[in-house]
């Protein structure tokens, strides 16, 4: 079946589940999102910043996770609304849910219940800690419990990831599971992802450093635990900040060449640069501070030295490349951008 022929029913709110629905909607699938009229719809409709239109029925947060969907307000406990919901279940190919623990059974919307109504259903589920857990999940709590707060931030101050990345990690894994089920023609089937599992799986090299080397990661700010200078922040003569991302010896020696600096024995290998990273930064910083940002960027780019100017979001979205990715959509009478 082609993506554009898919009918997806989204019984999900906030970020993780709705992001999955938006993914398929952007590809052309028919996505119907059901919201709770008693609560005034998805909770994120009310998550407004102080300068947002108080009269609007949506928020910028809501717009971020909801694109191209048909919205229906249905009360699961109302007989008429329940009949309408059952019709949606029978007609869809995929159902996306992220119920609170116990709600799938409470509302008779478990996989087995939905499969009785639609024997060809792909039931895609996001939970907090797994289907058997009764705990509700919150991204920040999971960042604490899966180690992210222990490795993110400065030495004495933990910092949360500024976007609910664990929700997004889980959403990406659920997309992959759904696409696999479609490819393998596995329906009826249940695809289940937990935020906890997604968070652990996304620790990548930080996990293997612990599991294989017993090196418990510490908070390093922007610094990389295995490579230097990688994550070091430097400032040009005109006050522009850059992050260095030197991944190998060749790139490091090209950086030295771009800065007209000598090669020193204490920085010849990555192991030595990690050992002497404080001294390394002290060696690089003064030279970079003499060069304006445009010249520094040009030298590095010419020599294939990976650096990045640290931009705020206003600066990011002023670029043509970012603007080309922005989706504009009229939602409930309001123009949204995402």
Per CATH, the superfamily of the largest domain is Crotonobetainyl-coa:carnitine coa-transferase, domain 1
Average pLDDT taken over every residue? 93
- The radius of gyration computed from the alpha-carbon positions, rounded to a whole number of angstroms, is 24 Å
Query: What is the strand content?
Result: 15-25%
Structural domain count = 2
The major β-sheet equals: 6 strands, parallel
Which strand order do you get reading across the main beta sheet? 3-2-1-4-5-8
**What structural class results from the helix and strand content?**
alpha/beta
CATH topology of the largest domain: Rossmann fold
Order of helices and strands: EHEHEHEHHEHHEEHEHHEEHHHHEHHEE
The beta-strand count equals 13
Shape descriptor: elongated
Give the uncertain stretches in residue-range form: none
Number of helices: 16
End-to-end distance? 28 Å
Primary descriptors:
formyl-coa transferase, domain 3; elongated; 2 domains; three-stranded antiparallel beta sheet; 16 helices; Rossmann fold; six-stranded parallel beta sheet
